[in-house]
Amino acid sequence: MEDIEFKTTNKKFKCRVNGLIINDGKILTLRMKNNTSYCLPGGHVELCENSKDAILREMFEETKTNVSIEKEFAIVENFYIDKNNLDTHELSFYYIVTPENFDKIKFENYSLMENDKGELKQHNFEWLDISTLNNVDFRPPFIKDKLISGNYNFEHIIITK
Fold first, then answer.
1. How far apart are CA 155 and CA 159, in angstroms?
2. Contact yes or no for 39/29 (Cβ under 8 A)
3. Reduced to 3 states, what is the DSSP secondary structure of residue 152?
4. CA 110 to chain centre
5. By the 8 A CB rule, do 16 and 44 touch?
6. Cα–Cα distances in Å, from 5 out to 44, 45, 46, 53, 94?
7. 135-160 pLDDT, tens digit each
């Protein structure tokens, strides 16, 4: 399948999903290899795939366990300049999800390898206490702020440059 992502000479659009697994005041985060910041598991929505199917697929690919959707957390339209200096429009769907078998989720830090369309990616998972997210480089910051404030109500957020 093809990811929903396209580029022009100086602009880019992408559509993504992200999953929040929360347990006992902590959230499952990941750091990609050679990355110092923390983010949420997830990935690109594929062409002709809806965001709910995409989050179920992406969470299985990255955590190796099936999840169910508990609730929609946010839809975010984020406009920014990326690391390649492209004017970027990212549409992201955030879902609070629950593993079907919580016993398959490790409650300590661990790593898994994912074969992402032929590219091997190492995911380093860490459980972070939500109350201490301000002490680490957790991205995106608007989701961090929402979590720390305890605002679990659905929001449509627009972030402009």
1. 12
2. yes
3. coil
4. 17
5. yes
6. 8, 9, 9, 17, 18
7. 999 989 999 999 999 999 999 999 99
At 24-72, the pLDDT tens digits run 999 999 986 677 899 999 999 999 999 999 999 999 988 888 999 999 9
Residue type, 63: T
For residues 40 and 143, the answer to whether their CB atoms sit within 8 Å is yes
Which residue ranges make up each domain of the chain? Answer: 5-159
User: 């598991």: which residue's tokens?
Assistant: 41
Amino acid 56 reads: L
Question: Angle 22-59-44 (CA atoms, 0-180°, nearest 5)?
Answer: 120
Domain 5-159 has CATH 1.20.120.80: no
Characterize the bridge pairing of strands 119-129 and 155-159: unpaired
Question: Which residues make beta-bridge pairs with 83?
Answer: none
3-state secondary structure of 153: coil
Q: Based on the number of CB atoms within 10 Å of its own CB, is 50 exposed (0-12), middle (13-18) or buried (19 or more)? A: exposed
pTM of the model: 0.91
